[in-house]
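Replying to the earlier thread about multi-chain prediction with a worked example.

Input:
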Amino acid sequence: MNELRVAEEWFESKGWKSFQFQRESWQACLRRESGLLNAPTGSGKTYALFAGVVMEFLQAKVQGKLKKEKGLKLIWVTPIRALTKDIQNACKNFCDDIDLDWQIAIRTGDTSTSDRAKQRRTPPDVLITTPESMHLLMASKGYEEYFSTLRFVVADEWHELMGSKRAVLLELALSRLKTISNPSIWGISATIGNMEQAMEVLFGSDFGKKKLRFIKSETKKKLKVLPIIPEEIEKYPWAGHLGVKLAEGVLPILEKSKTTLIFTNTRSQAELWYQHLLDIKPELAGLIAMHHGSISRELRDWVEDALHEGKLKCVVCTSSLDLGVDFRPVETIIQIGSPKGVARFVQRAGRSGHSPGERSTIYFLPTNALQLIECEALKAAIAKDDLEDRVPYIRSFDVLVQYLITLAVSDGYQPKDILPEIQSTFSFQSISEEEWLWALNFITKGGSSLEAYDEFSKVEVMEDGLFKVNNRSMAMRHRLSIGAIVSDSMLAVKFQTGGYLGSIEEWFISKLNPGDTFWFAGRPLELIRVKEMTVHVKISKSKKGAVPSWQGGRMPLSSMLSENLRIQIGKVAEGKFDSAELKAVRPIIDAQQDRSLIPSSGELLIEKFNSREGCHIFVYPFEGRFVHEGMASLLAYRLSHFRPFSFSIALNDYGFELLSDQDIPIEDGVDSDIFSLDHLSEDISASLNQSEMARRRFRDISGISGLVFKGFPGHYQKDKHLQSSSQLFFDVFRDYEPTNLLFKQAFSEVMEFQIEEVRLRMALKRIASQDIRITYPEKPTPFCFPILVDRLRERMSSEKLEDRIKKMTLQLEK
Amino acid sequence: MKYTIRHVELELLPERAVFWREKRMLIVADAHIGKVSHFRKNGIPVPRMAERNNLWRLSGLVMKTKPETVVFLGDLTHSKHNKAWEQFIDFRKVYEEVEMILIKGNHDILPPEALHRAEISVMHQMSVGPFLLTHDKEETELYNLYGHVHPAIKLRGRGRQSLKVPCFFFGENYGILPSFGDFTGSHALKPKGGDTVFVPGQKETLKVF
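Result:
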């Protein structure tokens, strides 16, 4: 008998044909195997696993292997809430058609308290949820019983989770579930550079020990990349990241296609583009919408529904629509500005052209002239299948500390039972005895425990050695802060008459006064007042106003994209202008050549000149902003060996600038091998001590580990006495407890993710083999101009505080 | 750094306090003793040493200046009674001969008996010489010295450098002291013509405006 009958017949009844990868997945599920399914969105991956899970259950039931028929059977973890509904529908359809009476429930941050309570009393058969909600379940009493019937866990969009600390949350949750009910585990991932590592991270110590399946879908989508080239490149700005000058060029594209998604990199850019498109083509009113993470869920749902139904001509969006359900009417994608990575660009392109065999079309709109070269680099990278790696987080002690409190909030635990589980995860495979004791000490005694008596109490150690949180308000506070995404303090934006518009960062609102106008959710709003955590507004008559600039969106150019970019720069240095993009950008390249130099692949360009502001040094490694940040600090530190300096540092994805009030002896620096790899680690740590990078990283760490408490929703004032800033904590740990693992974690995260130490080393190695060319341009060059106008600066000083203050007094900030 | 207000010379100490040598009076604002303990009590693990440091610094300051009177310009404590207060009492006993006065601030919610045990007298305001000492700003003919604000100032220099540092801030008829406590935030002020601003450095206090 055909064991896949149920699924095969269902596919037939729908008039579909199952794919090879689906049949393989079904068989693997029937054998209760675990593995990774490598399949893109919209390929039928949901049915590949869900049908398998159902058939395995039916088989076990027939064979009489079920201990209990009721109870939770499958947890489907997805990184984004927007996807849950779609997965639920897919599962429901299948169950309805085969007459299976399964309850399929969603549990996310949006789920109402009453629904949650219902889910607790009678567990659904299938739970679709996020990593955070899984931890919330583990923070409630009797959770082991709840999970005891579990047979499968699916980690959807695993590639997306893997590059974040949310993956660590999932790893920890899985380690617990393996002990409770040993479910089969499946990851679903799009193609990434480090596919094998993706499996290792998901399975932890099972990887290499247990038989794990890797199933790949054979479908590959065709992709067409079209640049939008400014007509008069000479007049197109050298710097900028908005690109609205080219908006006219977008209109014919919108005209031609049924529905277009316009992707921007930041929310403020989305707001601006939305406004601008309406300004230049008022007929779009009602046909254009906006979608980003700060807009209220309801508004976003409305946009998504309207997209499905084909009611919208165009949606301006951010990464909020990168993932998720397919919108069939979408025919065309426009990317505004650098997508920063090949994989992201391909992912976005994939949001168009859904029918099998159909081609995806994506337009690239450069926001400054040099980005045309990036477009050419993207095309080359896509042709070679150069996709980025996702770097997993390891040793995230902030998440570990949070998890250890989570378990203590529910039923409590004996540390000796939990340690082996934690050691089995990829993230904590190298945790030492000492580090483990530190973590336990941290949650019970609050760190250093030199004295016996103290008032600290979070987790209590009971007489039988059980670790437990007994204080109810402490438990409540912990539940509210479960998760690994930390955002700035957000305020709700509401009309005075009622009606929620979305949420906005506190620091933006704090700059405004009542009566001021700002743009939000596509509307000009007048600030009436800020009361507790709510911003009251009304529609403004003024058309001019500030656009909130959300932080984020400052991600670096990926290694794959920058490598391809360097190849293209090398090509134009040899005078090879062999595509429309490169031909178009030629006047800019000529200007650069004229004023300074286009570095060939064997050269590193440094530009030096003086202005009213001081002495400027520009270096162009084309390695992405994070590597540049590290390299800039390193250079600043090494230059300070000549004499004490104060630098301010600016950078973009192409290069960086050191600016000082004194002459910078870069020539001497180059002579004494300032780019050397010798003593690199020591020099980086020395330069980091004085820098702000670790401090910024610490913001998230202190949020995740519960050092900084954001307050109960709606109880803003009341809990203010417990609020503090991560800045203060950072200083306090630096001064009094530098061995604190959370403090140290900030530095290792900086190495791994901020400086990208591995990439920095490789870049320096490359530079060692290059000729260093220093030019002294009289006018700013096309390369340096975008950095020069970037006002976001990092500081670094080796001078004494008193000396700095003495120098600064004359130019007091107005 | 010395600064003269209405013919009285005050010393602005880099330890973030004011010393009036003629009267042997040490003035300290916003020490927030017990803030660390308060956090720890609520399960937020701030290193305890941070608390000790406040007292050590205070102790060092008393040893250095040998005052007859110490005036705390409010927010001496951060919240309810806790271990840190016992430590403060220990410190207090070492300097029995010194008179200590607390101008009550919004955070000073300790019960009178706790303050009594520390032999510290409590006032809402205090006028001495040309000064009215308060926690927050008050309307007065006298020169008003207060704390509460945790004043700081942003400086900017060539090469687009900038810096935010705690400061002593003096207007025409009021002066604001920086907060003494370590584990406290600050609030940036913008000086106008006629204001004078000093910044406590590592070893000396500097005039910046």
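Chain A has 31 helices and 26 strands.

Feel free to reuse this layout for your own posts.
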